[in-house]
Design goal:
The structure is a homodimer.
Chain A lengths: L1 E2 L4 H12 L4 E6 L2 H14 L6 E6 L5 H15 L5 E4 L14 H28 L5 E5 L15 H17 L6 E6 L6 H8 L3 H6 L8 H13 L4 E3 L2 H10 L8 H27 L2 H11 L7
Parallel strand pairs in A: 1-2, 1-4, 2-3, 4-5, 5-6, 6-7
Chain lengths: 300, 300
């Protein structure tokens, strides 16, 4: 059961699952056209597996939409899924004071509620039917730390981490496994849209970042799951951030974790200093722009 | 400008502010009766200060409610506040599968949106009027880590931390200071309500916790602010959690932080082991209860 299955990470994951022999894959997203296109691609490439592949079109930002989508999948397959990959979501970076309330609400819906409602309906279905399954949530590097531009994104991605952390503990009661995958920037259509609204200081801070393809990203996710890691990431700097920010959750490889923890402890204050220094460098420009836009009501 | 000012931490903070000479204090909450009562208490105790004290009754879980409350305060005082203390919020611990969608939504509204909407309207007002003020958000120990029972609370409190982290960076552009205060359990009417719905494993995990009074809590907050700490807490264990979970944000006292970081690195895996061990100990009981309630649809 893959949400956000019409593009980006969700689509690449659905392909990986089919190509690696998964027999019942359901992809869920809003866009029927997008879902059909993915289904065609899967058809062509892996016809010899003959898996039962379906799609469900649904708006997952409501509790009703999320549970109807799951009921639909159950009806078509005759059973509830046992693996849930919650990949739906998007990011629209912008200055906080420029965000409309609708954008802030939409940002939280797209990051948090798309994940939480499906997790809720999935947990209830798995517990009631005694399915010892797995839920994989998708966080972000920006679930660990946040900076200028991400006030409509980081809160939701932090919230996903909060839900995963609480649920990992709680689902020990029902033998259901919860994992959290936290990728960095992925080269997807979503990333291009994201960049079009990105404030100047945010772009500057991300200058050196390298994007990975959705397929590489899936490989990172799968490797983390195969190794039994609760949280896994895609980049060196995310591993540092994991060791500086994960709090009370299980670690991964103890030896690697130890060195990353040391490095994170030394590197974090330096990182914060340079991030803040860069942001402050934009202060004059940003204030001049606001002045020119007539944003200020009172002269200084 | 103190939200959640009718009880608990917000009420205690409003009192502290008036008693320490703040001349214009506005308290905001839903309950008019509660607000009036606080105002009477303040009247009696500190009449000699003669501060202009007002209350605004508002529902802060909507953007409209939050900005109307601020406009009301502006109208009465003739200016926008320069210090915002966002204390509104509550917690209703329960098992995830027992939560109704309304409870999950309400939990996020009460923790995240009460804070985010006021922060949004406050930032816009401060930037537009060139007020070099301060926003203090209230997170929780459960902004750093989460466990069984807190799926309607921790996501919102993690989200508050995400917002504070992003906003601390962004508001460097406008000389506005953002702080995050993360208390442990406080002995308030809210805590009693919280305990009435708390699942058995959650109670067990919190068995050794000591509550502090709202007044002690305010002292911790004030001390952190006076020392210029971005994040401050109320307990030793929260300090450990801060060093294991804060990610890319400024630290406090470098020497204390260093020792706390060492301790957190050693202690965290042990803490996780015992937390998980305790939760697993409830597995049989919880499953038997669900069996008796007829929750299971399929026999094992």
């Amino acid at each position: 059961y893959v949400t956000g299955g019409s593009q980006g990470l969700g689509r690449a994951l659905a392909k990986w699952l089919v190509q690696n022999g998964a027999s019942d894959v359901v992809i869920v997203a809003r866009s029927v056209d997008g879902l059909k296109k993915v289904l065609e691609e899967l058809e062509v490439r892996v016809l010899h597996h003959d898996p039962i592949r379906r799609y469900v079109s649904a708006d997952l930002i409501t509790s009703k939409g999320a549970s109807e989508a799951l009921e639909e999948a159950q009806k078509r397959h005759g059973r509830y899924p046992d693996h849930y990959f919650l990949c739906a979501g998007y990011s629209r970076p912008r200055y906080f004071i420029d965000h409309t309330p609708e954008e802030l609400q939409g940002g939280l819906d797209a990051t948090y509620w798309t994940t939480a409602w499906t997790a809720h309906t999935a947990c209830k279905a798995m517990v009631a039917n005694r399915i010892k399954g797995r839920i994989v949530m998708v966080g972000s590097f920006l679930s660990y730390t946040a900076f200028v531009g991400y006030t409509s994104y980081s809160p939701g991605k932090y919230a996903v981490r909060g839900l995963a952390d609480a649920l990992r503990s709680e689902m020990l009661l029902h033998d259901i496994t919860v994992n959290l995958f936290l990728p960095g920037g992925i080269d997807t259509p979503g990333y291009e849209v994201e960049n079009s609204s990105k404030p100047a200081p945010t772009k500057k801070l991300e200058e050196g970042d390298t994007l990975i393809t959705a397929e590489e990203c899936v490989n990172h996710m799968v490797r983390g799951l195969q190794r039994g890691y609760y949280q896994s990431t895609t980049m060196f700097v995310s591993e540092l951030m994991r060791m500086g920010s994960r709090g009370g959750v299980p670690g991964n490889n103890p030896i690697k974790d130890f060195f990353m923890w040391l490095l994170a402890g030394i590197g974090m204050p330096i990182w914060v200093f340079f991030m803040d220094y860069t942001v402050k460098g934009f202060r004059k420009n940003v204030q001049r722009e606001l002045e020119q836009k007539g944003y200020y009501k009172r002269a200084t």
